[in-house]
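Figure caption, in words: inputs first, then the predicted bound structure.
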Amino acid sequence: MRTSKEIRSTFIDFFRERDHKFVPSAPVVPVGDPTLLFTNAGMNQFKDIFLGLSKPDYTRAANSQKCIRVSGKHNDLEEVGIDTYHHTFFEMLGNWSFDDYFKAETIKWAWELLVDVYGIDPDKLWATVFAGDNKDGSKPDEEARELWTKITPIDAERVLACDKKDNFWEMGETGPCGPCSEIHIDLGPDRCDHKHIKGHKCEVNAGCARYIELWNLVFIQFNRQAGGELIKLPANYVDTGAGLERITAVMQDKSSNYDTDLFMPIIGAIAEMTGHKYTSQLGNKTDNALRVIADHIRSIVFAITDGITPGNEGRGYVIRRILRRAARFGRVLGAHEPFMYKLVDVLSDTMGDAFGEVKERAAFTATVIQAEEESFGRTLDRGLEIFAGAADRALESKDKTVSGEDAFALYDTFGFPLDLTELMARERELKVDTATFDDLMEQQRARGRAGQKAISTVDLSGVNLPQTDDSAKYDTDSCITKIVGWIDSEGFTGKGRLTEAAGDVGLILDSTCFYAESGGQVGDCGMIESAGGRGQFIVEITQKIADCIVHQGKLASGSISVGDEVTATVDKGREASRKNHTATHILQWALQDVLGEHVTQQGSLVSPDYLRFDFTWPKALTDGQLKQVQHLVHDKIAEKIPVSCAVMPIDAARGLGAMALFNEKYGDEVRVVAIGAGSESQLQQAFSREFCGGTHVDNTGQIGGFGIVREESISAGVRRITALTGQGLIDHLGKRSEVVDDLSELLKVPSEQIFERVQKLIADNKKLAKQLKSAAKQGGGDVVAEAGKLLEQAKKVGDVAIVTGRVSAAGVEQARAAIDSVKKKAKSAAVVLGFSEAGDKVTLLAGMTDDVVKKGVKAGDVIRQIAPIVDGGGGGRPQMAQAGGKNPAKLDEALAKAGELINEILAGS
Ligand code: SER
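Bound structure (serine present):
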């Protein structure tokens, strides 16, 4: 039996032998493509090549790409676990041609690999081609149909023409697309899982597990625009994708992908941990839960490995949702404690050879998963109870629907993602009122949106942006160049004149010395001026789109035209960014020195104002560790060490031990920044070597100081350090020193005594507060006297004195003491007192002796009835009650009303 490992490597070797370059899988988080949440196909990393925005130095590529399909156009979440061949995470084996071979070779090689190399029975294979579409006028792919019968021995009847839904592949709503030709396998009538569906007929694309798609050969020729229009691309491309899991199942003769060596070790581990046995049956609750968890853990581990931390937005929320879904299936298996984090080791053992990053980051990934499992575990059981109640109510309802309010409460209070609630509802054959849920969600979002700025995005798909030569960015802050065009809300223009009326635009130059945002370093700001000062353009941010540098900003005066010669000058912020960037590298080195080599960078931000460095570490750094890190950085600055950069082949850089970012995609050549090497030939001696395209100082002495201003946690297992250098640090310290001077003046002590002085002030303050409290208690004597007077004037009904009136109490305690004294003195009394503090608040208190309560006068009732008069509310026991109100003007009225009420009851008793 061939292992999945062999199947994967055979695929790659097959195409290597046919001159394909092995381009490693891109991370599951698409680099620089905001249109996609997750990498969902092998072609994603080549999108810019298809669109003509970038040109690789190879024309054929192959790999096994890590894909996640849980959102957007390609979403397989609902099918997972229920059938045998859909997954949220899977590997897509693929080969690509960039304006090189086309349909003939693609079909020939696919057949050859499946039949001759993998040994799949050719009589089981079917092919499909695009049938065309009458509505949009697209033509049938006759060429592909003929090629199938000409090149391969397949029978003409087994080449089917299928419609757009199955045979026109698109990456997403926009982007590269084209007709495709698929290879399906007939696994025999026993494998049909749709027998129970009336009218079902087993055939290609009919949805049952008998005919499974193995390989999709896409002939990319178009770019879908946002409005739906198809634009022909300048060249023809090939993009193929074959699911490793499905091919492995076929070759290992398994009726389910889950029974292959890709999943069985994971399923085995879960079964063992939870004390179950996997019986490989569909429709079985336990087996289903085992499959779902085995599927989900692969998405979770690969996503976290590639830099996603579970959170409340975007990609982070998708991963949180999947993890919570899996945790709930864990409950089905009786797992009440975190267990999924233990599966990271299984994945690292089975996948670590093909994807080394899983192994390298295993400890970190496990920490993150465990933390998530723990935090959801705290609310999961209670949430399940709440769901049970909501589901019972839904069962009684007419439309058998869980209310949107219940679904929202489950989401908001118990962390149940909507799809989890929907899933549980489906299990009980219930629906969920998602429309109301969405409304409640939108209301919550609207509340949270205040203050956020929208970033305008211009659709540039299909636009061939000019390439910018930005090689001067490392050497100079000012250069003479030419205007090539600009991007405005309409898109790109390469001719005409730009005036102030245009608003925000992205100016494109022939060459530039501006650094575009990348690798955590923010883009440069500055000025672009046309010769003779005819026009001045202020650059607010510089960004890179494919190989084009875009200087975003506004024309401040005059006008500029395409073709104008201009001087582009980066502002002073660049100098500060250089210092911060080199300091970030030294900081990483220092952290590894103090905490250990396994500390890895999770993210960074280098701006002119400050630097931020995120790294893996489970707990807060101690003061001692922070001081040590700071000292190490100081020493390296004081030593005035040279910084040098070199561009070299990636293997050479790795050979030097240069640190790379785990989630970055690198080309064949990389730039290495080394601190501690006087020249390129001395890179080996440098103490810090990192893959980095950023701008740096020449010598660490120029950094001129370093100070950590904050250390905090940003998510489970990830800490963030914020620090300052150079002028930023001087300004920060200057401000602090001013605060110290001000305090010193205010407290009238020298600065070194401020601490002691403030300590003393705090202690004094506490003492005074205590004294004030006890004085107030004593001061209560006046209030007692006032109440005594009220008692003397009180009206009597029988033996009962009705004592109502205002007192000048400073707090409830005093009024209460006064009531107690009246009750004691009078033996039988109904007392209602009121006072007003701070002018806008009133308090009412009532107290009754026991005999009065027996007669039916209850303090709580009286207070409840009179409180609304002073715009307030309150209540209490029959003996004692209290209310607060907001309308002091009505206090007397309320007290009079109390007297009447009491009188009435007593008179009637
Ligand atoms: N991009 C195509 C797919 O995802 C072929 O790889 O099916």
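The radius of gyration is 37 Å.
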